[in-house]
Design a protein that fits this description.
- Chain A: InterPro entries: AAA+_ATPase, ABC_transporter-like_ATP-bd, ABC_transporter-like_CS, BCAA_Transport_ATP-bd_LivF, P-loop_NTPase.
- The complex is a heterodimer of chains A (253) and B (304).
- Chain A is built from ten helices and ten strands.
- With 253 residues, chain A is of the alpha/beta class.
- A six-stranded mixed sheet of chain A has the order 6-7-8-3-9-10, with helices on both faces.
- In chain A, helix 3 packs parallel to helix 6 and helix 6 runs parallel beside helix 7.
- Chain B is an all-alpha fold and 304 residues long.
- Chain B contains twelve helices and two strands; from the N terminus they run H-H-E-E-H-H-H-H-H-H-H-H-H-H.
- In chain B, a hairpin with a 2-residue loop joins strand 1 and strand 2.
- Classes of the chains: A alpha/beta (253), B mainly alpha (304).
- At the A-B interface, helix 2 and helix 3 of A face helix 7 and helix 8 of B.
Chain lengths: 253, 304
């Protein structure tokens, strides 16, 4: 199969599934948001979830991460069912999550934020924090400052770094570019790519659909709580129907 | 001048008691997200536990005193702190944990019920009368009076000194230990704390233990300063609330500062012309309102 499509299939290890979401219904209280949703992540990929407001993109991440319990269906991590498990356990099992808003501890220092990201680590905390400071020098520069004093872009870097202290296998990122000035958005996507290059599999929700798909291997288009399209990211970008319905018309970028 | 200084020192003793009560109230508000009306009665629980244990230990322990207070009372203080911590944890387990999906208002109303239950249980055992710790009457410390003209009893020293030690200890815990950072992180952003892998249960337990123990210390100090009564904590609760709100509810350091200000204001009432001491609490509340008009979220509080 992969031999026939060498140009588009960047997910070389297509059989090596790390996360599987199978036929999941989920929502808030009585309100159903996801219905019969299925998707998967292969090891080493960046997968982007796009779709209109209210399609349930963030709900997917919250359900996978145990912030919401799936009503029906199965979620497995490397074949082990994880549906409805507590986030504190998932963090220990190698899943990280970067929320869209309120994703730093404002009254704690940068250093303390990173330490809180590593509460579940048994050892190597100092080393990994040192490495993150090397990778994101702005954080070292402001090490002792309270996180609330950071700019929007810097906060996003800290939010990433906090989640990376656990060195997760899978990182769930909710709209990393939301609320940021266009000039910084590119930096944020570069960071996502760097993290992926270092071996972390990424499931990302992105409102900025074209930009998000450009750095992704595959994409899912969500509409009304179900998957409307799934394909390689470049195929989705080229798909005229997807382009017209979900990407705001032709690509002028 | 020395009269004013005397009032300030009196205020400091009262402030200590308010601060110790206020810290727990603020911790519960910031981490468990509700105004705990049972916190004053938790102070009473601590004071009575100390009363019982100090009484029982008086014949057993050697008859020595520090700052003219018997050793049994110091041990009683620790027993009282442990007992109130235990009662707080037990209440969390029995009452608040099963209600974990309830909102802040439901929990507030529940805590009023808890307060009544604490008080009723104490009154069943001890009646509604007042008691006092077995302390000899103390005179002022002469050298201090000669030096600055302020009359302070040895037990005032104990209250101020131990409060300072507890507050510094709490500060060290919050700033320099992992548990303290987890507590601050959970108070700051509970959702992110969960997402980061912090086990919130551990933090909630620590909060009740610390809040309960400090409340008990405040209760015992109030008993040392005045009397041990079943309503002692409840009668103090409004003033403690005023201090916590003034300092910025949810902020531990705000509670300390607010406690200091309100305690002082309370005791400085005699210095205000035409205002009788009966209005001491009123003065404290007027001050609270005045400061809130300038800083609506309290001195150390932050806009939501």
């Amino acid at each position: 199969m992969s031999a026939e499509t060498p140009t588009t299939d960047r997910s070389a290890s297509a059989t090596n599934r790390i996360l599987d979401v199978d036929g999941v219904d989920s929502g808030y209280g009585e309100v159903q948001v996801l219905s019969d949703l299925s998707l998967h992540l292969n090891e080493g990929e960046i997968v982007c979830l796009i779709g209109p407001n209210g399609a349930g993109k963030s709900t997917v991440l919250k359900t996978v991460f145990g912030l919401l319990a799936p009503w029906t269906g199965q979620i497995t991590l490397r074949g082990e069912p994880i549906g409805g498990r507590d986030p504190a356990d998932l963090v220990r099992d190698g899943v990280g999550y970067v929320p869209q808003v309120d994703n730093v501890f404002g009254s704690l220092s940068i250093d303390e934020n990173l330490r809180m990201g590593g509460v579940a680590r048994r050892d190597g905390l100092e080393e990994v924090i040192g490495q993150l400071y090397d990778r994101f020098p702005i954080l070292r520069e402001k090490e002792g400052a309270k996180a609330r004093t950071l700019s929007g872009g810097q906060r996003q870097v800290l939010a990433f770094a906090r989640a990376l202290v656990m060195e997760p296998e899978v990182l769930l990122i909710d709209e990393p570019s939301a609320g940021l000035a266009p000039s910084i958005v590119q930096d944020v996507f570069e960071n996502v790519q760097t993290v992926n290059d270092l071996g972390t599999t990424i499931l990302m929700v992105e409102q900025n659909a074209r930009e998000g798909l450009r750095i992704s291997d595959r994409g899912y288009v969500l509409d009304q709580g179900s998957v409307a399209y799934e394909d390689d990211a470049d195929q989705l970008l080229d798909n005229p129907e997807v382009s017209r319905l979900y990407l705001g018309g032709a690509d002028y970028a | 001048m020395s009269a004013l200084l005397q009032l300030l020192v009196n205020g400091l003793v009262f402030s200590c008691i308010i601060v110790l009560g206020g810290i727990g109230l603020s911790l519960v508000y910031s981490i468990a997200d509700f105004a705990n009306f049972a916190h004053g009665d938790l102070m009473t629980v601590g004071a009575f536990a100390a009363f019982v244990s100090a009484g029982a230990l008086a014949g057993v322990l050697p008859d020595v005193t520090f700052f003219e207070l018997p050793l049994a009372l110091y041990v009683g203080l620790f027993v009282g702190m442990a007992a109130a911590a235990l009662v707080a944890v037990g209440t969390e387990w029995l009452v608040y944990r099963p209600l974990k999906n309830a909102g802040s208002i439901e929990l507030l109303i529940t805590s009023i019920g808890v307060a009544l239950a604490y008080r009723a249980l104490i009154q069943m055992q001890f009646g509604s009368g007042q008691r006092s710790y077995a302390i000899d009457r103390q005179g002022r410390v002469e050298w201090l009076f000669d030096a600055v003209g302020v009359a302070l009893t040895p037990r005032d020293f104990v209250v101020i000194g131990l409060t300072l030690a507890l507050v510094v200890g709490l500060h060290a815990l919050l700033q320099y230990t992992t548990l303290g950072r987890k507590m601050r992180a959970t108070a700051d952003n509970p959702n992110l704390a969960r997402v980061s892998g912090i086990r919130t249960r551990e933090v909630v337990l620590a909060m009740w233990i610390i809040g309960g123990a400090l409340a008990a210390a405040g209760g015992v100090f109030l008993g040392i300063d005045l009397l041990v009564r079943p309503r002692m904590g409840f009668d103090l609760l409004l003033v403690v609330f005023a201090a916590v709100i003034l300092g910025g509810i949810g902020s531990v350091y705000g509670a300390m500062l607010g406690g200091l200000v309100i305690g002082m204001a309370h005791e400085l009432t005699p210095a205000i012309p035409f205002v009788g001491v009966e209005y001491a609490s009123g003065v404290a509340f007027v001050l609270m309102v005045a400061i809130l008009l300038l800083r609506p979220h309290g001195i150390m509080g932050e806009p939501a």
